[in-house]
Amino acid sequence: MSYFAAVLARTDEGWRGEEIDLSEVDDLDALSDLLRDRTGEGPGPALLLLEENDEYVAVVRVDGSAGSLQEPRVFLSDRRAVQGSEVAAMLWEQADLDEDDEDDEDEGTRPIAEPVGDAGLLADLGTPEDSLLEVCAEEGLLPADVLTTLCERAGCDDVLEQLREA
User: Fold this and answer.
1) Is 50 within 8 Å of 22 (Cβ atoms)?
2) Cα(30)–Cα(36) distance, rounded to whole angstroms?
3) 73/121 Cα distance (integer angstroms)
4) Domain map of the chain by residue range?
5) How many CA atoms lie within 13 A of 146 on its CB side?
6) Are 36 and 62 in contact (CB under 8 A)?
7) Residue 37: pLDDT above 60?
């Protein structure tokens, strides 16, 4: 599987980022700890931005420092990703996303993407819930473009671009 996964964290000095290897992350708790560690003593947030095989986008957000016990917030641009991606499945299952898990009646068809999770997790960073859903549904926009748009709105697109160029 080909994916791009980056952690972007807002610290006292501004946004910082690093590309990460998710093969070493066993569960959502470990991912949350990794994200919280990147904020230092600041309130964050720290975000995991993931796009896999040009199929879907995942965003995981934690707020607070490493001592914080707030639950991570998870958004997937397409719930169908859990069928073909171990990472998406881990995020889906362990975040206990409260969505109907209906089986597709005809697995041969590819229905419209079904975003799941907390679509409001970036509202304070310039992308309210309805805008996030709109960007994810925009025809012709690749997952990498979606992440760029989200980062532009949050003011951290330069950090994301540096990671992609590295």
Assistant:
1) yes
2) 10
3) 7
4) 3-165
5) 29
6) yes
7) yes
